[in-house]
Each structure stands twice: as C-alpha cells, then as structure tokens.
Write a structure and sequence with these properties.
Helix content is 52%, strand content 7%. By secondary structure, the protein is α/β, with parallel strands linked by helices.
C-alpha cells in the first residue's frame, strides 16, 4: 500500500509523511474516524513509507525488500492486533491467515466481514488481555530487521478492560523505537488515559466526489457512482454494498418494508417469526439492521417535508416512502427513535435478541397507529 493509492485524507498523509521525513515519529498514534473511510489503508501506507529503503517523491518505492515484505505481510517487525474469538483456546497467530486475506480483499475493513471470516457467529470479537501480554513480551525484544518495531491495533475500542490497562502501561513507558498505531472506528470509547497518550489524527468521511471516484475505479458507471455516493455518507463500505448484488442495504430495506407492513396490519404472529429470523442473522448484523431502521425512520420523517435534496435514499426506499412516510410523524417519531436505540443497545449488551426484537416490533405496531391518516401502507 502506497500513499498514492489512497483517495482523500491529504492532510493526515502529509502529517505522517513529515513525521517520517523529520524523524519525529510519535510512539503512539490514533487514526480515528467512522468505518469505511480507509483508516487502515492510511496506516498501511504509512508503514510502507516508514520502512521503505528508497523513498522518493513523498512515497514508498514499492520495489525494495522492505516494501515487498510489507506487501506480502512478511515484515517481522510489523505486528497486527485485532478483535477475535477464543480467549483460552486460540491465539492471535491462529487467525493470521484469515487476517492477511481480509486485509488484501477488504482493505476498507468492514467489521461484519471479519466476524464472518473468523466464524464469530453471535459472539462479539474482542481484544483479550493475553494479546496485551504478547505485545509486552515481543516489544521488550530487539527488532529483527529494521530500526522500528510497529504494532497496529485495529478497533482498540474492543479491548477488554484488563487489556486496555495493560496497553496503557506500555504507552506510559514505551520501549525505544516502538510505534503503536491505533486504528479506531469509535475513539470516544477508548480509555481517556489511552486517548490522551496518543497523537490523534481525525480522519473525515470521504466526500461524495471521492466516493464516486473509488466506485468508478472499481467499475461502477459514472451516473450510478454519483447517485450511490450521495447516499453513502462518506462510507465506501456502504457504497460498495449498495452497488453489489444482494448487498446488505438491499436486504435491510426489504426486511424494514416487511416489518412496517406487518406492524401496520397488526400481524403479531408474523412479526414474531420475523423477529426470530432477524435474530438468527447474529448479534452484530442485528445491531446494524436496527441502525438502518433508525436511518429510515429519520428519512421517512424528513420525506414529509417534500423538499428536494433533504433525503438520502435509494430508489426502492423512496418508492416505499411515497405512501409510508406520512405514518412517521410528529406524534410518534421521537418515541420510535427511542425504541430503536433501546433495542440496538440491548442487543449489543447480549440481551436475548429474539425477545428484544419482538418487543420492539410490538411497540412499532402501536406507534404506527398513533396517527389520523388513512389506513394504507401499500
């Protein structure tokens, strides 16, 4: 990965390049920002530049032994730490083949794809205390081939408390020429003491033009790329999903429409079956579906304003909202959003997803009738 392969994030790249060029590299860096904007791509390009033996024109050469090692994940002084499963039965090393394949095939780091790659099921992958112990052990040793030893921690917000406390000690008393790069989707969830000991780079969402550029590079037509970019909210993972066959957003849209029609019809038995079907998708995917419900509830409410340019929906979503949006109104929108957030939080807290979803759908059913509008959602 080279800086020239990164779309966007020019200011961050310039700062990282200058840190290497001036030999003022912070021992701990935090690359923070929403999912799907290329934070790990920036981290990997920085690592390539750091180790490159023939830097020129502000970028790594891509050809020297160090660059080739990084490209093939063979640099003995670069270590990756990531959320996983199996605290006592498996080590991080067990998952390295899946991890390297994930880096190569999903460079924008969709966390649901990683959970699927390691067969996490309903288990939320985390970073364990044993991972921090392994960092401490290897960091105390001399580097193998290069001056710097680098640790890239993906999603540090998933660290267990014991792991976070152990990492804090390493950041407080760092070993010489040891660099930590924390790549976080939710930096506000880090320990404040860890957060304060890093040099922070806040990466912004990609612009619509940047998203469209990436999509066109991947073979999407110009018109579709621009349409999708306007809906993607700077998230290339979401953009890829909208352009892919059978993407998650299409799936969620279908489920949301089905749920709302069943709720309005007060078909309790079918709502119960639907709640079980959604829960079977797994905890994290269920949470993403509820986040989608929150977005669609907001968009449906805004749709009532009939103001062009305010909504960000796919054509299928907009077609459904022509008749559905009046049922999301000032009488029920706040309560619906509260119930969605409560269900989302309960699912992530390991509550029984089937019960949480069924209860949520019953409350949606009651709120949809909180209106004086004609009875028609079809």
């Amino acid at each position: 990965m080279k800086f020239s392969e990164i779309t966007g994030h020019t200011n961050t790249i310039n700062s990282l390049r200058e840190a290497v060029d001036t030999d003022h590299i912070p021992h701990a860096m935090l690359l923070g920002g929403q999912e799907g904007i290329g934070k790990m791509r920036v981290a990997r390009a920085f690592i390539s530049y750091l180790y490159c033996m023939d830097r020129h024109e502000g970028d790594s050469c891509g050809k020297c032994p160090a660059c080739l090692q990084n490209a093939h994940h063979n640099n003995p002084d670069v270590h990756f730490i990531f959320p996983r499963t199996g605290a006592t039965t498996k080590s991080t090393e067990t998952f390295l083949p899946q991890w390297y394949d994930f880096l190569d095939s999903h460079s924008y780091m969709p966390k649901e794809e990683w959970a699927r790659a390691i067969e996490a099921g309903n288990t939320v992958p985390v970073i364990y205390r044993s991972d921090a112990s392994e960092i401490s052990r290897t960091a105390s040793l001399s580097s193998f081939a290069y001056r710097y030893k680098t640790y890239v921690i993906w999603m540090p917000e998933r660290m267990q408390p014991q792991c976070a406390n152990a990492l804090l000690k390493l950041l407080e008393e760092p070993f010489p020429d040891t660099i930590f790069i924390l790549v976080s989707n939710e930096p506000d969830k880090l320990l404040p003491t860890i957060f304060s000991r890093t040099q922070r780079f806040n990466l912004k969402p990609l612009t619509d033009a940047e998203v469209a550029e990436i999509l066109i590079q991947e073979g999407t037509s110009g018109n579709e790329a621009r349409e999708v970019a306007a809906l993607a909210e700077g998230n290339i993972i979401k953009a890829f999903d909208m352009t892919g066959e059978g993407g998650e957003i299409r799936e969620f849209s279908s489920i949301f429409i089905q749920m709302m029609r069943l709720a309005y019809a007060r078909n309790v038995a079918s709502l119960r079956m639907l709640s079980e079907s959604i829960a079977a998708m797994g905890r994290e995917k269920t949470a993403r579906f509820l986040a989608y419900c929150a977005r669609m509830t907001r968009e449906s409410f805004i749709f009532n304003l009939k103001t062009e340019g305010l909504n960000a929906m796919t054509r299928a979503e907009a077609d459904f909202n022509v008749r559905f949006s009046p049922f999301i109104n000032h009488r029920n929108v706040e309560r619906l959003m509260t119930e969605i957030q409560r269900a989302h939080d309960d699912v992530l807290r390991n509550a029984n997803a089937r019960l949480v979803l069924f209860d949520f759908m019953l409350k949606v059913m009651m709120q949809l009738r909180n209106t004086n509008l004609p009875k028609n959602t079809n």
